[in-house]
């Protein structure tokens, strides 16, 4: 008979006790009453690395693609049935499997809620941040969607890592930097004026000087939105300092491209021009 009252695991202490489970206890930990148990067992068995090597090399990728749907069907109360499988897929040798999970980790976070996300998904998310660019782009494209689900203190920890997105395996991968600029525009709503000035401003200025025009154009919008955010904040000193820096760095630049950058930034939000002069 199925036992639907088993607690789900979501912290380190539970993980340590789970490692000492007997095979029978391990089987019971994956019991649920939402779908036929045989169907779930078949899905879980397909993530076995040995099967991927002998049956189908793409099977793990398909399982990773389907995992958010399976998690939604089972519900967060049955996350204990999928947790080990998710961690197995997240450490798969094939980068395509990890990439698939990276693109959907924000959706899984919505399904699981803040507590399970903080305990089980954040470590996986941190691992993806240090992965190949093909995997990192997955978390970057939905960076705002994931970070907004975290507690404020936990969210601020990632301010120190945002600059790492400027470094890629291939410097010609300009779309990576363009996506970073797009995400930073969205992230402005999640952070305080001081955090924006201290951490996001240097990244924005770096993107404004990018060699690729498409990246620069998005960055102009980023800087303009940053000015707006700081202008509307209660602390006005940040916006004054930012505008002074824009004037010194671009408006009075000895290169015509720098002065052109200043004009483009003003063009994006022309109603701020009067504030400069």
Description of the structure:
GO terms for molecular function: protein phosphatase regulator activity. Keywords: Repeat. This is PP4R1 phosphatase. Residues 1-29 are annotated as: Disordered. It comes from Sapayoa aenigma. By secondary structure, the chain is mostly helical. The protein folds into 2 domains: 33-150, Leucine-rich Repeat Variant; 170-276. It contains 17 helices and no strands. It has helices at 12-18, 23-28, 37-45, 49-54, 59-74, 83-90, 95-112, 114-129, 133-141, 143-147, 152-156, 174-187, 193-208, 213-232, 237-251, 256-268, 273-276. The longest helix is centred in the last third of the chain and has 20 residues, at 213-232. It is elongated. The termini are far apart. Residues 1-19 have low confidence and may be disordered.
Q: How do the helices and strands follow one another from N- to C-terminus?
A: HHHHHHHHHHHHHHHHH
| Low-pLDDT windows of residues | 1-19
Quaternary organisation: single chain
Structural class: mainly alpha
Q: Helical residue percent?
A: 55-70%
Can you tell me the number of structural domains? 2
Major beta sheet summary: none
Cα-to-Cα separation, first versus last residue: 76 Å
Number of strands: 0
Q: Write down the CATH class of the largest domain.
A: Mainly Alpha
User: Any guess at the CATH architecture of the largest domain?
Assistant: Alpha Horseshoe
Instruction: Write down the Rg.
Output: 23 Å
Kindly report the CATH topology of the largest domain. Answer: Leucine-rich Repeat Variant
The chain-level mean pLDDT equals 83
CATH superfamily of the largest domain: Leucine-rich Repeat Variant
The proportion of residues in beta strands is: under 5%
> What is the 3D form?
elongated
Q: How many helical elements?
A: 17
